[in-house]
Design a protein that fits this description.
Blueprint: H1 2-29, H2 34-56, H3 65-91, H4 94-101, H5 104-115, H6 122-138, H7 141-166
Helix pairs in contact: 1-4, 2-3, 3-4
Length: 167
């Protein structure tokens, strides 16, 4: 049952990240600012999480000042992620913003390798390669490079034409 519960949580989390660009783009189009959208998200999260705490009747006996400080620092990074993510949606299409968001997977593995000296297993390296291949295709980078090459060809062709006029 534990594996199925974990899969369900991953699906809910992925779905949540998939829906947030829709709400952020709608908010921006209706004149809401980045700060207002982030505050609404934090308030909704606050209500949902405290509802879970109340329903489960969680105990806070093991908490001390050190734990609370660690929780606050972790929460600050989560908040910054939301600010940067929604901020990127002001300038980028939502599809590209979500592709950039999920780069944390391979970047986290890379940081762990460099900072903690924990060498990733072969399966982890293969997963990283698969992620990067997926990002490569999902971002349509080949089309962007091709369009850029076509533009340079046009510019160079135009400059060649101007140069030929001088002769």
């Amino acid at each position: 049952m534990g594996d199925k519960k974990g899969i369900l949580f991953v699906l809910i989390g992925a779905g949540s990240f998939g829906f947030t660009p829709i709400f952020a783009k709608l908010g921006f189009s209706n004149g809401y600012t980045l700060g207002q959208i982030n505050i609404i998200q934090m308030l909704i999260s606050l209500v949902l999480l405290w509802s879970i705490v109340i329903i489960k009747r969680s105990s806070f006996r093991g908490l001390n000042k050190k734990n609370i400080k660690q929780i606050m620092i972790t929460g600050s990074f989560v908040g910054l992620t939301s600010i940067f993510y929604y901020g990127s949606m002001i300038y980028l299409p939502a599809s590209l913003a979500i592709i950039l968001l999920f780069q944390f997977v391979w970047i986290g593995i890379l940081f762990e390798w460099i900072l903690s000296k924990v060498r990733p297993s072969l399966i982890t390296l293969l997963a990283m390669a698969l992620i990067l291949i997926g990002v490569f295709f999902a971002s349509n980078i080949l089309i962007a490079v091709w369009k850029n090459c076509l533009r340079w060809d046009l510019y160079l062709g135009f400059l060649r034409h101007l140069h030929m006029q001088d002769l």
